[in-house]
Amino acid sequence: MYLIRLAVFLLFQFSVSAVAQDMETSETVWAVFAFNVHGDSIPDILPQPRTLSPIGAQNLYDVGSAFRNRYVMGAASNVDETASPDFLVKDLAQHRLNADEVKIYSGWDQHVQASALAFMQGFYPPITGQNDSFLYVDDTYLLANGSIATSPLNDYQYPRIYAAGAADPNSIYVSGQGDCEMHRISELQYQYSPEGQSVEDDTAEFYSSLYDQAFEGVVDAAWVSYANAMEISEYLEYGYVHNASLQGSVTASDLQRARVLADQYAFATNGNVSASGLYEGDMIRAIAGRTLARLILESFEENMETQGASSKMTLLFGGPEPIVAFSALAQLASSMNSNFYGRPVPGASLILEMFSMNSSLDPTYPDISDLYVRFIFRNSTSTNEEFTQYPLFGMSPSLIDTPFLEFSAALGGVLLPSTEEWCNTCNSSSIFCVGSSPSEIKPAKPSLSLAGAGAIGAAVTLGVMCLVGIIGWLCGIGIYRKHKQLKDDGFKGGTKLEGDRDVAFTSPRNGLFAGAVMGSGRQAAKSHERTGSWEMKNKRRSAEISQERLDGEDEIEEATANAEPVKVHEAV
Ligand SMILES: *[C@@H]1O[C@H](CO)[C@@H](O)[C@H](O)[C@H]1NC(C)=O
Ligand SMILES: *[C@@H]1O[C@H](CO)[C@@H](O)[C@H](O)[C@H]1NC(C)=O
Ligand SMILES: *[C@@H]1O[C@H](CO)[C@@H](O)[C@H](O)[C@H]1NC(C)=O
Ligand SMILES: *[C@@H]1O[C@H](CO)[C@@H](O)[C@H](O)[C@H]1NC(C)=O
Ligand SMILES: *[C@@H]1O[C@H](CO)[C@@H](O)[C@H](O)[C@H]1NC(C)=O
Ligand SMILES: *[C@@H]1O[C@H](CO)[C@@H](O)[C@H](O)[C@H]1NC(C)=O
Ligand SMILES: *[C@@H]1O[C@H](CO)[C@@H](O)[C@H](O)[C@H]1NC(C)=O
């Protein structure tokens, strides 16, 4: 019986791969990078913990399925005959998830991690739920006595999701603005700038009427203002889906106006690339896009260095801010398409595909000069939504495919090359920033090679990591042992130089995981990439303080402390 199954299995594997390989294509996709916004979740201002709602999970599952159709199954899919084989990622495993091929980074919060899980359930569904069930057994299924054992839930596949808490330097990839003090100060500066004040005045009446319709008993009246436009819009959109009484009391046009104001606020505070913080030209408000840009190049470089074997898919899950920031940096939001001034919908995906114009029958990895990048934005969770391509860097639509070398040169001009530079640009007091010295800061500069830049930061961060590890150990926190070599250990950057240590943590990373778990009381559970909910109430007060004497360092420090009282690292 077992032998028959195995024979069928082998035969089938052979025929499947034969089908996939025989498909002549005009292009070959080598690597895909996608940032996905989390799904519908309980808004921050409600007292319940912020969790992904069932409809949010369903939406992310659908997005994962759409990705599966395009990148994994292509024309081999029974589900969608129209999918083109052109977009299959070269040699990406069809049925069994491979953690080296697919790397998943997530924010720390439950609604973000759960979004990543729901996406993965659609992207690599349980094996026996797949059509040709049972045929995909491998050695790990076989028992010594000849029987076959499968995982629970129809042979569910367990993805590895790297969720970084605020004390983890890798958290800056998913939300570079999250714990960035200068970003927060710059946001307060916007609120008190003439532009911010004029919007605030013009909308005061609108927000006060919204308070009467939907916020009474939920928050203070003073809180409902333009300064909290994003949280307000988030709450209304959630309520519109889940709360019949709110749906009855708020009109569709008010809902839309709240959304547009939130878009405006999000763009002014994350997409304004001319505002500077401590250093002229540091694009402090778009910092989340600058950190994201670094990971994009690192994953593509890793794919090149391994000749396409590793980092075939890099999937990130987080809030909308990095997309707003990246869109501004990549000049999507300028002349071409004013839609990029708006925030992406929950579950939206920003995608970069690295491909060559060579047929997939061609087994050799292309030369770097034969690689291209295309930008895709998918602003919906519907499985029918197209993968729509847009030109990057203000290029004309006829030059929609960007040669990789041009792409990396342009991105090199905006990316933050190291964790240390993030620490300095943000003037961050995060635990992993201890020891970085602001005097060494260099302004943003074009840099094609990411290698050297991380080196300085690495030494510093590594030292701190060790310290954290020791503290964790002293506190009796179990630190997971790593049992694979450094090389295999996940999220390694694109180069093999020393400098990448701040990307590829081994035990220190687990130490930080443990530290973050320690802080997972009520406050940590409610922490948000941007700012915690109830802390938002303090924001106004902080803003006033910072406005009074913006130049006084003490005041700024106080403002910062008020604006963000929750810091996971304080618990370490
Ligand atoms: C399984 O395959 C059959 C025919 O090959 C098709 O009709 C059916 O829709 C497929 N089911 C799923 C879940 O893919
Ligand atoms: C084979 O081994 C597994 C695990 O030890 C056991 O659960 C199963 O009943 C065994 N099957 C047979 C046919 O003995
Ligand atoms: C529904 O919305 C109303 C305001 O319109 C609010 O008072 C009520 O608490 C909300 N219910 C829930 C369950 O959130
Ligand atoms: C960007 O921010 C700067 C500094 O706060 C401000 O002067 C400028 O008007 C803003 N630009 C836009 C397009 O809002
Ligand atoms: C995505 O959809 C939202 C809501 O409709 C809209 O405000 C935003 O401009 C859209 N973004 C893009 C890039 O289409
Ligand atoms: C890929 O195609 C380009 C032209 O489009 C060609 O110059 C190059 O040699 C091809 N690469 C391989 C590995 O065949
Ligand atoms: C930077 O941070 C340090 C320590 O947190 C603080 O003393 C200093 O005032 C900050 N500088 C600015 C310009 O905010």
UniProtKB/TrEMBL annotation:
TM spans (from-to): 450-480
Any one GO molecular-function label of the UniProt entry: phosphatase activity
Biased composition (Basic and acidic residues): 541-550
Superkingdom assignment: Eukaryota
Keywords of this entry: Membrane, Signal, Transmembrane, Transmembrane helix
Keyword Membrane: yes
SUPFAM superfamilies: Phosphoglycerate mutase-like
Signal peptide segment: 1-20
Pfam families listed in its UniProt record: His_Phos_2
Region Disordered, annotated ranges: 519-572
Family per record: Belongs to the histidine acid phosphatase family.
Protein name as catalogued: Histidine acid phosphatase
